[in-house]
Specification:
The chain is mostly helical and about 260 residues long. The chain has 2 domains: about 1-125, no CATH class; about 130-260, Orthogonal Bundle (Arc Repressor Mutant, subunit A), CATH 1.10.10. It is built from 12 helices and 3 strands. It has a 3-stranded antiparallel sheet. Helix 1 (about 15-25) crosses helix 5, helix 5 (about 95-125) runs antiparallel to helix 7 (about 145-160) and helix 8 (about 175-190) crosses helix 10. It is elongated.
Amino acid sequence: MSSPLNFHLEQYHGPLDLLLDLIRKQEINIYDIPIARITAQYLEYMQKAAETSMELSAEFVYMAATLIHIKSKLLLPKDPELAKLSPEEDDDPRKELVDRLLEHERFKTAAEMLQQKRVIEEAVWSNPQIAQFRNDGDDPGLAVTLFDLVKTLQTVIERAKQRPTYEITGDEVSVPDMIKYLRNVFSRERGPVSARDLFEGQRSRRAMICMFLAMLELVKIQALGLTQTELFGEIGLKKLKGFETAFAESEVLSAIEEGYK
């Protein structure tokens, strides 16, 4: 069996990155992962990393144990008595791993899109008033990127998985709804508002995602800006001078609402 790791040993940000790379390079259906083959290639990567003195985090070791556990469950015959006790349980032990991979890929894709957008805007966009904007006496704080906002959302969603779940009906929240909500929040607040608090104030993952997209739209039209008071500190949002102007221009908001229909 040829291994996709023969050419050189790549660096990965985590075990999910490695698994996604193995799956995509071999054009494997992510919903039908050949665990035996992927586990062998994953362990081969870890062995080669050890041979080259590459330091791997504990997450890689934990994922290796998870893959071996899934592999063993697939090899073992199903116990009919356990099936009777919990008939609603999913028969495929790979499901949880597939869900984690898909969610990780969504966040990775979003981060890559934001990076491409930032590079393009820095290359082609200029504002003759930007120097005056930067020197108007406001404290710029630390440099914060949209990647920090993505990480904040991902952390809140992971934490939300541990909360007790409640059935909520009629949760038809939309991005325009969240834009209106943020307008009300920042019409009252003078200082920065914690992005984490805004995410955690939502009742569902859908609402959190809509909140995140609303933040992106308001940052894009320069109604809101990202702040951070200290290195690795909490990400906040603050009202910019263009806040009132952005909401006064109905065409801008109408275009945003049209884009989410």
